[in-house]
Amino acid sequence: MSTAYDPSNIFGKILRGEIPAHKVYEDEQTLAFMDVMPQGEGHTLVVPKAPARGLLDADPESLAALIRVVQKVGRAVKQAFQADGLTLFQYNEPAGGQTVFHLHFHLVPRHEGVPLKRHEGGMADQAVLAEHAARIRAALEA
Ligand code: AMP
């Protein structure tokens, strides 16, 4: 199996504007948008614009920028959903659970006693995702 970065992955397409996404934050190096199959309300993905398949092949400078945005968006996500906590996860390679081969962090706001839904469960309603993205953008602007 090749472990080279393949730009045809779905997040590469989102970064190039070839397919839509419910964006919540963007800067020169980073993009954050809603996961279409959320494991909890407000499930957000943060990706670097620089090509990297996963954590292990990423450029350290790009990773440093990414984690700053993970913290910034993480605060906003937690606030937007009045969550009790925040779960981060990040998978590498199929054996590590990865299905989209462009580095990304998952951010899921968590409430006491509410379990995570299954990874890649159902597609969320687009209108609901749009509303959740707006809530997170508002928290980022507050
Ligand atoms: P993984 O590579 O296992 O960390 O998971 C990839 C994640 O991307 C899953 O949680 C999917 O629900 C999510 N996903 C797949 N396609 C899209 C898309 N077009 N827009 C937003 N999220 C997506």
TrEMBL record:
Domain HIT: start-end pairs: 10-117
Signal sequence interval, chain numbering: none
Superkingdom of origin organism: Bacteria
InterPro entries linked: HINT (IPR039384), Histidine_triad_HIT (IPR001310), HIT-like (IPR011146), HIT-like_sf (IPR036265)
Alphabetical list of CDD domains matching this protein: HINT_subgroup
Short sequence motif named Histidine triad motif, residue ranges: 102-106
Name of the protein: HIT domain-containing protein
Organism taxonomic ancestry: Bacteria, Pseudomonadati, Pseudomonadota, Alphaproteobacteria, Hyphomicrobiales
